[in-house]
Amino acid sequence: xELQNIRNFSIxxxxxxxxxxxxxxxxxxxxxxxKRKMRAQVLDNMELERERGITIKMQPVRMSHKFDGIxxxxxxxxxxxxxxxxxxxxxALKAVEGSILLVDSTQGVQAQTLTTLAMARESGLxxxxxxxxxxxxxxxxxxxxxxxxxxxxxxxxxxLLVSGKTGEGVPELLSEVIKRVPPPTETYxxxxxxxxxxxxxxxxxxxxxxxxxxxxxxxxARNQELMFKVAGEKFISLEVGTFAPDESPQPLLSSGxxxxxxxxxKRPGIASVGDTIxxxxxxxxxxxxxxxxxxxxxxxxxPESQDDFNxxxxxxxxxxxxxxxxxxxxxxxxxxxxxxxxxFLGMLHLExxxxxxxxxxxxxLVVTTPxxxxxxxxxxxxxxxxxxxxxxPNDGEMEEVLEPWVSITVITPIKYLGSMMQLFYExxxxxxxxxxxxxxxxxxxxxxxxxxxxxxxxxxxxxxTAGFASISYEMAELRxxxxxxxxxxxxxxxxxxxxxxxxxxxxxxxxxxxxxKLHGVLPRQQFSTKIQGxxxxxxxxxxxxxxxxxxxxxxGSKVVxxxxxxxxxxxxxxxxxxxxxxxxxxxxxIPHEVFLxxxxxxxxx
Length: 605
Prior knowledge:
Elements: E1 6-12, H1 19-29, H2 47-52, E2 59-67, E3 70-78, H3 86-94, E4 98-104, H4 111-122, E5 126-132, H5 141-152, E6 160-161, H6 170-180, E7 195-204, E8 208-217, E9 219-221, E10 225-228, E11 233-236, E12 239-243, E13 247-249, E14 252-254, E15 258-262, E16 276-279, E17 297-303, H7 309-322, E18 327-333, E19 337-344, H8 347-361, E20 365-367, E21 374-378, E22 383-386, E23 398-413, H9 417-426, E24 430-436, E25 441-449, H10 450-453, H11 457-464, E26 470-480, E27 483-490, E28 493-494, E29 500-503, H12 507-521, E30 529-535, E31 538-545, E32 554-555, E33 558-559, H13 565-585, H14 592-599
Parallel strand pairs: 1-3, 1-4, 4-5, 5-6
Antiparallel strand pairs: 2-3, 7-8, 7-16, 8-15, 9-14, 10-11, 10-16, 12-13, 12-15, 17-19, 17-20, 18-19, 21-22, 21-23, 23-25, 23-26, 24-25, 27-28, 27-29, 27-30, 30-31, 32-33
């Protein structure tokens, strides 16, 4: 296909604004998929995506569409909408020339829309504004149209109207894509060499790593000698092809086209989003802008049964082959056994990886409360990077602690503004500019510790605003942190899995909540058990779990000793000594269900 007849574009939108549904209608209109094979969210391949109605992995597809008597090749990349996957989205946007900005006409522009729009503008893409769900009785087309026109500084006539449900306006939208989006161009014309941008990849048991690429220069065919420019790994292409939307082998992928290359590589850590593929002896440079995504949230993952440790290790390695953005390393805990410390791009990323471990590998897991990275300067001048709460130093050892902050944009209906301000105060936020955003909404710019963002902020915001507020955030600078380590002691023994880093001003409150919850879920022992919250060099909260009572004076249905008081005293004294020995040994049985209930408490980190 000639470059002039190729159009590469993506759809960017907030979660649940109808992105995948619109893609379904495009596939129908272009006859890419037969109607009898059509299903909802056809580009969402994971069961988890279909169940939750969100796009987790981006999915490219090639469509053919005739306009003014000419056949055009349309390459669509359906991208994730969540902030955790913003780097993947940014790479996908580098693989296209245009983007459809999809806005739900019942909700209006949301915070995440602004973030993704900014990335599209930075990439120099042509933006086509589109309002979705125009068939809904709740649609506010005129009002939202003005909102979008103001945002993009465009005329109302440039904004298209579609319904992903009925298909209304979709053929017209495809025609506008052909008219407005420019065709791709080559950077290094005249050089007989290949250069391709990797914007995603997956793993196949039989084929190894399959990379999704946009061919920037030259062409690539089967059995061609190629290499990952950043990773420095050489390979021979076993197969090349396009997406229709399933993988369709082709003899050649040419400049401007989007497709896949089967690498045959079966080792984790080689392929990564943003890398460039060239020939073995190529002198073409790597595509600019590559960086390795840095984990912002950490959590420990343990198998519920230690017999499954090797299976968990294998499962993490397998997932790493298709998701290079998370990292893991082995660790051990006295209470939980052997497991792994893993880093993620955010809370949704963590949730997805752990859910995939459970579903795809049938593993029962214990996942500790998520935490962030702290940078600690000790009094002896030593610098520590701490990403596990139980490794956080004691108060007397520290001179200074730095923690990451985030810049947040929240869009909320004006009537919830007062409630949101109170919520920001409770989460130690610094409130910046507040401005009107449309008729009855406000846009608030806020700075907040990442620690506080992860402390159940999303759920509390949804509850406070009845789900009408939206949020986007990006990592900001490091700042001094006024935090301390909170340990939970059971029978005078610290349980590392319950340790967390908390704000000093909330240490008492956090200690009381943790102790109270543990008191409610921990089974009674043969001896009375103290549960304590320890921070700031002292016990902040304490509860005693009463002993499981066993009447040693009963033997079956008979009273021991036939009423002899000396015999009864002897048995009671023996029981007392036994309980004292158990208490001194500190052997408390903590079932896995207790860890699970404590981790699901929506704790501090």
